[in-house]
């Protein structure tokens, strides 16, 4: 999704947003371009690790557990924000989008307590948009340990997070590869006309099958940043 690309740009430029939430994600114009907004609390990370602030940041329900713990127990009123704090909010945002407004840590009353205790309530049956396999990555982004959360760059190496055009091209390449494998298996020469069928497929058809094929494409990622994930 586009806001992952935007957040990656911020992090590459050493900027922590500190207040990611649905209200700060805008859909602009007829093209429905997605933009991240409200940089009033954003800060530049100077040491490459985190930013120390004397002011609380973030919105209740969208704040990472390590930040919540600091707010509750920090007598000196110094709060450390990292890129991983943004990644936690990003995971909450993804779940919010694919479930039509549900929060992975429950209702507003119990949300903060669930975040602190690591009680995540991800429900595959609640997914109404996109591919259910994305819940694997959402779960990683919501890990209580900030060091275990994948960066935006790592997420964007997975086809599930690619924009439509790039995913379309990738699936076409996979279809072409499948044809070559089939030719070898059956030992029958295919005509050029038959081999060109992939170019006649409508984009909508390829995108429709993508959710089914992408489940298998995780095999491709076994040597990548998600090699330890079990499907």
TrEMBL record:
InterPro entries: IRE1/2-like, Kinase-like_dom_sf, Prot_kinase_dom, Ser/Thr_kinase_AS
Keywords: Kinase, Transferase
Segments forming domain Protein kinase: 1-171
GO cellular component annotations of the record: IRE1-TRAF2-ASK1 complex
KW Membrane (keyword) present: no
GO biological process: intrinsic apoptotic signaling pathway in response to endoplasmic reticulum stress; IRE1-mediated unfolded protein response
PANTHER family the UniProt entry points to: IRE1-RELATED (PTHR13954), NON-SPECIFIC SERINE_THREONINE PROTEIN KINASE (PTHR13954:SF6)
Protein name: Serine/threonine-protein kinase/endoribonuclease IRE1
Species this chain originates from: Orchesella cincta (Springtail)
